[in-house]
Write a structure and sequence with these properties.
30 helices; 6-stranded mixed β-sheet; 694 residues; alpha+beta
Length: 694
């Protein structure tokens, strides 16, 4: 029996690879996927750690589910966590997206059920890399759908080595984007396939179900899901508007929209009220718009102009509902992506680097030389003007605009940029090959094209590709290499500094907290470090990276920006027992000798946002009193604020015209230093913990 099974398997494999071209194509795709995997696991050199801050909270949620077995998926929605946002706590089930922890916990239970025992942290660390490989595979199929196999292979290769993609799918990036992007791409691919004109009803329904389910899962995973679930209706409406309506389009859209809408309202963070939000209302209006086309086809004499009336009424009605406040709008954070100027009233949002408006340098760094190929790709798409071409043109224009308004959204633009760039490059190379072939086979002594086309063009493309892949590690001063991105250490390993080396101060601090602070200790700090304190330090925090309660963050900011007595009163109100600050500092060699200076990666730079957020929640601060015309903190900051006193490095004139920051710790009445991560002048990063005393 075993021999029979083996022979069948061998025949099956031989059948697949009997065609040498297919074998060659499969090998190329496997090579690309292997490259994608190995580039993304480069941080493994630094150990098994999660990156940044949010992934640690995702891991905590996953661990909560895993520890409770299969019932953890239900218990999650009843979980009120008192380890964060003390003393009120946080209702996790209603304030967190379950997509990432649910997927990881499901995989864990599945593996555990078939006998594979894996550590939850190891799974959380490697899952983003696996999703990055899946993203590369889906990109191949999307690229193939747009421009055939050559475009598919180029697209897969480009996204495998895309800086923006690697940033959010490398080892340890256990966060929303690593899961959402492949599901979003799968949803787009399935919808494109579902709406093809020659699609049978059976396959149409299957692809529509996959599209709706995939996009629905994105709504359970990422707040930015508002984009894909608004884009699908917009694209569908555009198709109908330009005369490409068909009954199968109505069915495909109805199934897709119904499924992602049902899944969205089942996510507690969104709830039934999400149906009233503008992003979902667009879906409903487009459904009515498509129905009007169907009616006009059934009874053309009676309803011939109905779609035009419906479109006009829908637009006017949508604007009217927004104007009178009857229609729910996404939060200001989401609206500011469309209108970046709105972000000026959200100091908590703009205090985060990834929420800043993108510069051209940022966009180029994340997209690389692919940006130069996007116009060519759009040109070829516009010439062809098929449904999939309209889809990609609309998608690319929108995501590139959004990426230009917020740094974080370059990951949203990465798939579209790589697909369009891959298609553009494949068409350029296809034309190049065609013209070379014509030149080679022509008997007449005529050149249909200039030599620069088939010599300079590929040379330039190869040069750009090679330059973009050379890591700075190998002697290049400035690099846009994705390998450099993958080779960066996890944030907690480098102590939140942009340095490719281990700076163990945060790891030492969090270990000390676990082993030495009392079990009932409550640690006050700036919100940036809340997840680390709670998850890695195993202690209660007052505010954290979820930024759920602006008022409570403002209170902590007010404490840091106030005098010692006021700060003591505020922290005691929250029952804090300890205060943590993070400082970066080094010494520079100058003509005047060694000059010790604060580096600006810690609270010594973040204090200005504390001031602004405290002012936002109602406390009266005048920024010019704390910040001079050169952007440096004034004497009032150093003498009249708690943070100024807690920072042990104070400004001091080193020589004529040269001011440094010298170690001169303050003596305080209510805050006693109990821990410092490193001795003065011995590190780049320093974490200090003060005990609050009466």
């Amino acid at each position: 029996m075993e021999r029979i099974k083996k022979s069948k398997f061998v025949k099956f494999v031989r059948g697949i690879f009997s065609d040498r071209i297919i074998f060659f194509e499969v090998m190329i795709l496997l090579l690309i996927l292997t490259i994608a995997f190995f580039v993304r696991i480069l941080p493994l050199r630094w150990g098994l750690y999660l990156s940044e801050f949010d992934p640690w909270m995702q891991y905590k949620e996953m661990k909560y589910i895993v520890d409770r077995g299969w019932s953890g998926f239900i218990d999650f929605f009843k979980w009120h966590d008192y380890d964060s946002w003390y003393p009120y706590g946080r209702d996790i089930g209603r304030t967190a997206f379950p997509g990432v922890p649910f997927l990881a916990a499901f995989i864990y239970h599945l593996l555990h059920g078939i006998g594979f025992n894996i550590d939850p942290l190891e799974l959380a660390v490697f899952l983003p890399t696996i999703m990055g490989v899946i993203t590369t595979l889906i990109a191949f199929f999307l690229g193939r759908e747009v421009g055939g196999k050559p475009a598919g292979f180029i697209t897969a290769f480009l996204i495998a080595l895309s800086t923006a993609s690697i940033q959010r799918t490398h080892l340890g990036w256990f966060d929303d984007e690593s899961v959402s992007i492949p599901f979003m791409m799968l949803g787009f691919l399935s919808y494109i396939l579902a709406t093809k004109k020659d699609r049978t009803w059976k396959t149409l329904i299957i692809y529509s179900v996959v599209a709706g389910s995939s996009l629905g899962y994105v709504t359970a995973t990422w707040g930015a899901s508002r984009f894909p679930i608004a884009f699908i209706p917009i694209f569908t409406a555009v198709l109908a508007f330009i005369g490409r309506y068909r009954r199968k389009l109505l069915v495909a859209y109805s199934i897709t929209a119904l499924l992602y809408g049902l899944i969205a309202v089942m996510v507690p963070k969104l709830g039934i009220g999400f149906l009233k939000e503008a992003t979902m209302v667009i879906s409903i209006f487009v459904f009515i718009y498509l129905l009007s086309f169907e009616l006009s086809r059934i009874k053309p004499h009676r309803f011939m102009n109905l779609p035009h009336y419906v479109l006009f009424v829908s637009i006017v009605g949508f604007i009217s509902l927004v104007s009178i406040g009857s229609l729910g709008l996404p939060g200001l954070k989401f609206l500011s992506i469309v209108v970046p100027s709105l972000r000026s009233v959200l100091p908590i949002v703009i205090s985060v680097a990834e929420n800043q408006v993108s510069t051209w340098a940022t966009i180029f760094s994340d997209a690389g030389f692919k940006l130069f190929l996007v116009p060519a790709g759009i040109y070829y798409l516009a010439k062809r003007r098929e449904d999939v071409d309209i889809f990609m043109i609309l998608l690319t224009v929108l995501v590139v605009y959004f990426a230009s308004t917020m740094v974080r959204l370059t990951i949203l633009a990465a798939p579209a940029i790589t697909i369009v760039a891959g298609f553009g490059l494949s068409e350029i190379l296809r034309g190049l090959a065609r013209n070379i072939s014509i030149t080679y086979h022509r008997k007449e002594r005529m050149r249909p094209i200039g030599i620069e086309y088939y010599v300079v063009t590929p040379t330039l493309i190869c040069g750009l590709l090679i330059f973009s892949l050379i890591p700075s590690t190998y002697g290049v001063g400035y690099s846009i290499s994705p390998i450099d991105v993958g080779y960066s250490p996890p944030t907690v390993v480098s102590s939140s500094m942009p340095i490719r080396m281990s700076i163990p101060d945060w790891l030492k601090t969090l270990s000390w907290m676990r082993d030495n602070l009392p079990p009932n200790a409550v640690v006050a700090s700036w919100w940036d470090y809340g997840y680390w304190i709670t998850v890695l330090g195993n202690h209660t925090s007052i505010v954290d990276n979820a930024t759920l309660n602006t008022t409570q963050i403002g209170e902590v900011a007010y404490a840091f920006m106030s005098d010692e007595e006021t700060a003591y009163t505020v922290f005691r109100k929250f029952k804090a027992t300890h205060v943590l600050i993070f400082i970066t500092h080094t010494s520079y060699t100058t003509a005047a000798g060694n000059v010790p200076m604060l580096l600006g990666y810690g609270d010594e730079a973040k204090w200005i946002w504390m001031l602004r957020i405290a002012k936002q929640v109602g406390y009266n601060f005048t920024e010019s009193e704390y910040l001079d015309e050169n952007g440096r903190p004034t004497e009032k900051f150093w003498q009249n604020t708690l943070l100024g006193k807690l920072i042990p490095y104070k400004p001091q004139q080193i020589s004529a015209g040269v001011t440094g920051h010298v170690y001169q710790p303050s003596t305080l009445n209510h805050f006693r230093l109990v821990y410092q991560s490193s001795e003065p002048y011995s590190s780049y990063a320093y974490v200090y913990i003060y005990e609050i005393v009466d």
